[in-house]
Design a protein that fits this description.
Blueprint (H helix, E strand, L loop, with lengths): L1 H11 L1 E5 H18 L4 H11 L2 H14 L8 E8 L6 E7 L4 H15 L10 H16 L1
Antiparallel strand pairs: 1-3, 2-3
Length: 142
């Protein structure tokens, strides 16, 4: 079960599961990701012995290992989403940290968006605004 969850996590980068499975998956997949940082034949064979899926191993060594190369650990994040309706099991998302684009760029985008505010037109001098209003009125009249 853990190898199937690990394959899904590596291929999809984010999965929805119960909290207990996510915590067990975290302890299973993080040493595998650490092993994938060293791209050698031995480490590929060791990772393949855990996962038993060539596509997942290829994705892990080609895409995931490149993004987490400078990270010393903590490759996964668990986000609790509430309880399941049927049996009230606590549900969560488990995701690879470096692949969530919303959380990576969220701070920069939110800061840039916070700077823009809705303001009315600035009135520098009453003479300029009246002249602008008259010119608009003349343009409409013509």
């Amino acid at each position: 079960m853990l190898s199937n969850l690990a394959i899904d996590l590596i291929m999809k980068k984010r999965i929805n599961t119960t909290l207990a499975k996510a915590k067990a998956l975290r302890t299973f997949v993080e040493p595998i990701i650490t092993k994938s940082k060293d791209d050698s034949t031995h480490s590929r064979r060791v990772v393949f012995s855990y996962l038993q899926n060539k596509d997942a191993v290829t994705t892990l060594f080609r895409d995931v290992a490149v993004k987490v190369a400078d990270r010393p650990g903590g490759y996964t994040r668990i986000l609790k989403t509430g309880n399941r309706l049927g049996d009230n099991a606590s549900m969560c998302f488990i995701e690879l940290v470096d692949f969530n684009e919303n959380m990576l760029g969220g701070g920069k985008a939110a800061a840039a968006k916070a700077k823009t505010t809705r303001r009315g037109k600035k009135k520098v001098a009453s003479g300029k605004t009246e002249a602008a209003a008259e010119s608009k009125g003349e343009a409409k009249a013509e």
